[in-house]
Fold this protein.
Amino acid sequence: MSQLFQEAIIVSLLASTIRIMTPLLFSSMGELITQRAGIWNMGVEGTMLTGAFAAYLVATATGSLWLAVLAAIVAGALMGIVIAFMTATLRVDHFIAGLGLNLLAGGLTLYWFQGYIQGRAQPTFSGFQDVAIPLLSDIPFVGPVLFSQRALTYLALIAVPAVWFLLYRSRYGLELRCLGENPKALDVKGLSVSARQYAAVMLGSAMTGLGGGFLMLGFSDRFLADFTAGRGWIVVVALIAGNWKPRGVLIAVTAFAFLESLATHLQVVGAQVPHQLLLALPYIASIGLLMGLRFRSGQPARLGVPYARE
Amino acid sequence: MIRFERRTEANALWTAVSFAMAVAAGLAASAALIATTGADVLQVFAALLQGAAGSPKALATTLVKATPLILTGLATVIAFRAQIWSIGQEGQVLAGAMGGYLGAQLLAGLPPLLFFPGVLAFGMAAGMGLGWIAAVLRNRFAVNEIISTVMLNYLVVYLLSWLLQGGPWGETGGTISYQQSPMLPEEAFLPALFGSSRLHAGVLLPLLAAAICALVMSRTPLGYEIRGLGYNPEALRHKGVNIGRTVTVIMVASAALAALAGAIELFGVAHRLRADNLLGLGYAGIIVGMIGGLSPIGTVFAGLFFGGLASGAVYMRVLGDVPASLVPAMQGITLFFFLCAGVMARYRVVMKVAVQ
C-alpha cells in the first residue's frame, strides 16, 4: 500500500484519472444536453456502444483515427434520431425507449461485429497517442498529469465550459432549457417543440457517441461484446449526482474516474484484494452515492414527460 | 404535416393490423440484416425454421430454450405492468443459479422429491434478496430502480466471477482457471421428461408460472394493485394501499421468477455453474415480456417464438455464414417495431395543413 504514495505512482494515478474521464465527460455532457431538453434518455449505454463500434469499424477499415472519430459522432447522432423519433414523435415512455435502444444496439453491434471478423483474425488498430503540449508539459507534476494527454482529452476538458456556455449564455440554450422546464411556453410562441427536441437529442447523442468512440480509440485496439461495460449507466448516475449542472457533473465524473484509476493502480502495486471487488467499486459507489443524495433541485421539471399539445 | 391523434377507443382490427405490420417489418429488417453478411436469406430462414420445429429433437430444444425466456419475461410483466422499470432480471438469473448451487451443496443426499424443490427454493430466495434490495433502495432512498438494478447486475456478475475464479467454487484444472464450477453429481440433474431426451422436467414450470401470474393479475387484490400502480398510484394510495409494501412484493415476486430461470438452467441444462450460458437471459426476458404485450399468455408465446429462434440459431450455425448473434439482433429489431406498433394501435395518423 505504501508504494501508492510514491510520486511516480501518484502522477500516474492522476494522469490516468484524467484519461479515464475523457469518454465519460463527452458522454455526460451530451446526456446533459439531452436531459436538459426534457428527454430522460436511458439509451446512453447503447449509444456509447454504437459509437465505439463505429469507431472500431472505420479505424480498422481505413486506418484513419480521425475518420473513426467522425464515424462515432455520426453513429451517435443516428442513435439520437432513433431516440428522438420514439420520444418526441411517437411519445413512447422515455425509459422504455432507452431500454429498447440499448437492447437494439447490443444485438446489432454484436451481429455486425461477428459478421465483420468472420473467417479471419480480428483486425486491430493502434489508437491515439499522447500529445505533450510544449512547455506546459515540462512543469513538474502538473505537466505529466494534465498536459501530456491524448488530443481529444483536451477537447473533452474544453467541452465542459463550452456546454455551460451553450446552456446558459446562448439563445439556443435558453430554448433548450425551456424544453425541459416548460415546453408549452415555446409552443405558444409558435416555436416548434419537437424540432428543438430532435436537435437537442441529436447533438447530445453525437457527443455521447464520441465518448464511446474515444473509449475505443484511446484505450483499446479491438472491439468485444459489451465493450462499454456499464459506463453509459455511470454517466446517467453522474448526471443525477451532479444535479444536472455542468460543474456538478464534472465533479461526479472526476470521482468515478478516480475510483476506476485507483482500482487499476491497486492491482498494479499488488494489493491483496480480489480484482473483481476493485472492478465493482464504481457500481458500489454509484448505489451509495444515489442513496445519500437528498437534493434534486436541478432536475428539469418536465424531464421524461412526453410533450403533447392537447 | 403528419400528426398522430389519440384514438378515443381501441380498434381491435387496427391493433391487429399494427402488430402484424410490426412482425412483417421485423422479418423484413432481419432479412436485410442477413443479406448484409452475404448469406442466402431464404436458406437462413428455412434453417431457422428447421432448427426450431423441424423434428421432435428441435421442438424439445425450442422448449428448453424458451423456458428461461418465459420466466424472465414473466418477471418483466409483473414489474412493468406496475410501471416499475426493474431490469434486474439479468442479475437475478445469476443469483438464482448461485443460490441453487449453494443449495445443492447443502441439500446433497436428500431424496429427489425434497432435493429439487429445495434447491429451486434456494435459488429463488437468492434472487428475491436482490429484488428486495432494489425495492428498499427505491422505497427508502428514492433510488431510481433502473439504475439500481443495473448496478446490482454488474455487482452480481463480478461476485460470480470471483466465486468461480479465486473464490471457493472454481474448478481448478492445473494452473488455468476455467471460470466454472465442477460438474454437479448426476443425482442433481433435473430428470428428463421422456427417457434420455434433453427435455428436462423444468420446462413445465414456466407454463405453471404463467398460469399463476395470469390468475394473480386478473383475479386477486394483488393483481389489482399491480395494475393500479401502473395506471394511477395516487388513487391507489387514497384507497389505503401501502404503496411501498406493494412495490416490495412486486419486485420480490418478479425477482423470484427470474431467479427460477437461473436455477432451472443450472440443474436442467448446464449442470455446472458458469456465467456464459446465463448472461443475456435477463435482458432477453425484457424483450419477451414487452413483445408479449406485458400479458402472461402473450409472454408464453413470445418466449416460445424466441426460444424457437435460439434453437434454430444452433442449427443455422452448421450452415456457416451467419453469425450466431443473429438472434439478439432480431430480438432488438422486433422489439423496436413492436414499440412503434403499440403507438400506432393507440393513434390514428392524420394529414393536416398547419395553421399558423
Notes: Residues 112-141 of chain B form the longest helix (30 residues). Strands of chain B lie at 2-6, 172-173, 176-177, 347-351.
